[in-house]
Amino acid sequence: MRPARRPTAFAVSPVVQPGRRRLLGALAGLGLGSSLPGCGGGSGSSSGTTASTAVSGTSSDASSAAATAATAITATATAVDPWFWATAGTSTAAVVPSLSDFVQVLGSGTLTYAFHASITSATTDPVTGVTADTSTSATLVPYLIGRYLVTNANWKAFCNAMGSGYHPSTSTAAGQYWYGGAYPAGKENHPVFFVSYADALAYCAWLETQISGYIFYVPTEGEWEYAALGSHSGYSYPWGTSADIGYNASTGAFSAPFNCNAACTEYLLTSSGLTTLSYYDDTTVTTLADGTTALTSDTAPLSSVLAMSSSGAVTGWQYDSDTNSTWADFANSDQFHSLVFLYGGYSTAVGAYESGKSWCGCYDMAGNAYEWTSTLNVASNGAESGSEVHCVKGGSWYATAASGKSSGRGEGRAPGGAYHSVGLRVAARAK
Question: pLDDT for 166-180, tens place per residue?
Answer without folding.
Answer: 999 888 888 899 999
